[in-house]
Amino acid sequence: MSGPALLETDDLTRAYGSLLAVSRANVATHKGELRSIIGPNGAGKTTFCTLISGEVRPTSGHIRFNGRDIAGLSQHEVCRLGITQSYQRTDIFPRLTVLEKRAGGLPGLCALVQLLVARRSAHRGARPRARHPRVHGAGHLEVALDLSRRLCVMDQGRIQFEGTPETLRADPAIQQRFPGV
Fold this sequence. Notes:
23% of the residues lie in helices and 39% in strands. By secondary structure, the protein is of the alpha+beta class. The strands form two sheets. A six-stranded mixed beta sheet has the order 6-7-8-3-9-10. Strands 2-1-4-5 form a four-stranded antiparallel beta sheet, with helices on one face.
């Protein structure tokens, strides 16, 4: 997509002692774009999303929303800007498959962590309504590949690949490292 990014990270890093949970992540998401962050357990996906939402502060790097650096803002300050986080709740409709939940208009149940760039409500205390872009830390690969225009593959805290589902499926290196994509 062209034009300025609505939400972007620049060398975003979060260290816990010598462990780099997220290491120099650079991701740009544009208005109207749905993007998934996929990878194995422990790859850094959840930490990446908690950094954007303000739940966790970065060790270094930048997070920009509409051109404003929001890295280091508290979670409630980030929420006031319209970015919030919701965790997957698989127990709400336990008899439905992931695809049935998605078809039923429940895309939040298809993701481990979902960041929503939401419209601020004119009414104090009202829940914000979601709009794009959305960044999913996907728990279900098929859903991420089906829903997203662009994906990032994260492993060992780093973005290893960024592109469309088609280019991800066609990349032999990604296929070798992440079978089943």
